[in-house]
């Protein structure tokens, strides 16, 4: 976001240019706790305040959540708790906030949330092939033959074949699966094709962004830095 801070504040708040200039003069505009001047430009993924008040609702925002089980990826659901209910209150009223793709109710792990529709499209479009890595636990010992089966693509429905996936077996009934698309219940259906039932599913990586690098406990949210945002699509 290479636009001078004063211009963005004028365009996206109810303050006049004169008022904003006075805020700068009074050193009342801060980013990540540091006083900034009106020419500041590099502020993606940062905490911006005027007179100590957070103004997240006026910015494009990028969040990572370590999703616990039991929550659905929807803004409103009359039957189930939604992922937005566990966000910190300061994030909940941001307009157009949505998940980048979905994780099933019983699936845990790395979930991205943003109000940037173009960014979401760049990560979820079938043409982009952004890799996601899942830790999969199944109900029986995994046959090593599954590695080659997945590498060839798997027919998971009539006229529905997945792109090649990379399977790394790490224990008798656990493996990491890397895929670069997001068909409906894809991971579960890939294993079901070969008579395995997925008993636990956790997304551990999106692009090059790893959940282990974020130090997030289940249910916690992190405001992504510019470096982390860029890391996803490296």
TrEMBL record:
<dbReference type="GO" id="GO:0140098">
    <property type="term" value="F:catalytic activity, acting on RNA"/>
</dbReference>
<protein>
    <recommendedName>
        <fullName>Pseudouridine synthase</fullName>
        <ecNumber>5.4.99.-</ecNumber>
    </recommendedName>
</protein>
<comment type="similarity">
    <text>Belongs to the pseudouridine synthase RsuA family.</text>
</comment>
<dbReference type="InterPro" id="IPR036986">
    <property type="entry name" value="S4_RNA-bd_sf"/>
</dbReference>
<dbReference type="InterPro" id="IPR020094">
    <property type="entry name" value="TruA/RsuA/RluB/E/F_N"/>
</dbReference>
<dbReference type="GO" id="GO:0005829">
    <property type="term" value="C:cytosol"/>
</dbReference>
<dbReference type="GO" id="GO:0003723">
    <property type="term" value="F:RNA binding"/>
</dbReference>
<keyword id="KW-0614">Plasmid</keyword>
<dbReference type="Pfam" id="PF00849">
    <property type="entry name" value="PseudoU_synth_2"/>
</dbReference>
<dbReference type="InterPro" id="IPR050343">
    <property type="entry name" value="RsuA_PseudoU_synthase"/>
</dbReference>
<keyword id="KW-0694">RNA-binding</keyword>
<dbReference type="GO" id="GO:0009982">
    <property type="term" value="F:pseudouridine synthase activity"/>
</dbReference>
<keyword id="KW-0413">Isomerase</keyword>
<dbReference type="GO" id="GO:0006364">
    <property type="term" value="P:rRNA processing"/>
</dbReference>
<dbReference type="InterPro" id="IPR020103">
    <property type="entry name" value="PsdUridine_synth_cat_dom_sf"/>
</dbReference>
<dbReference type="InterPro" id="IPR000748">
    <property type="entry name" value="PsdUridine_synth_RsuA/RluB/E/F"/>
</dbReference>
<dbReference type="InterPro" id="IPR018496">
    <property type="entry name" value="PsdUridine_synth_RsuA/RluB_CS"/>
</dbReference>
<dbReference type="InterPro" id="IPR006145">
    <property type="entry name" value="PsdUridine_synth_RsuA/RluA"/>
</dbReference>
<dbReference type="GO" id="GO:0001522">
    <property type="term" value="P:pseudouridine synthesis"/>
</dbReference>
<feature type="domain" description="Pseudouridine synthase RsuA/RluA-like">
    <location>
        <begin position="62"/>
        <end position="192"/>
    </location>
</feature>
<dbReference type="InterPro" id="IPR042092">
    <property type="entry name" value="PsdUridine_s_RsuA/RluB/E/F_cat"/>
</dbReference>
């Amino acid at each position: 976001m290479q636009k001078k801070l004063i211009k963005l504040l004028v365009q996206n708040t109810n303050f006049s240019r004169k008022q904003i200039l006075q805020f700068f003069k009074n050193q009342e505009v801060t980013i990540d706790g540091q006083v900034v001047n009106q020419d500041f430009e590099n502020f993606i993924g940062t905490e911006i305040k005027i007179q100590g008040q957070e103004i997240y609702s006026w910015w494009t925002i990028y969040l990572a959540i370590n999703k616990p089980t039991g929550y659905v990826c929807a803004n409103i659901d009359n039957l189930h708790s939604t992922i937005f209910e566990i966000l910190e209150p300061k994030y909940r009223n941001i307009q157009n906030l949505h998940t980048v793709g979905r994780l099933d109710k019983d699936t845990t792990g790395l979930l991205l949330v943003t109000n940037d529709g173009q960014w979401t499209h760049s990560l979820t479009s079938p043409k982009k092939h952004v890799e996601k890595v899942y830790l999969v636990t199944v109900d029986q010992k995994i046959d090593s033959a599954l590695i080659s089966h997945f590498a060839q693509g798997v027919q998971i429905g009539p006229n529905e074949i997945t792109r090649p996936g990379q399977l790394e077996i790490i224990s008798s009934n656990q493996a990491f699966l890397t895929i670069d698309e997001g068909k409906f219940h894809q991971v579960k259906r890939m294993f079901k094709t070969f008579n395995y039932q997925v008993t636990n599913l956790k997304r551990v990586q999106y692009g090059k962004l790893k959940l282990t690098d974020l130090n997030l406990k289940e249910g916690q949210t992190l405001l992504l830095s510019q470096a982390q945002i860029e890391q996803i699509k490296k």
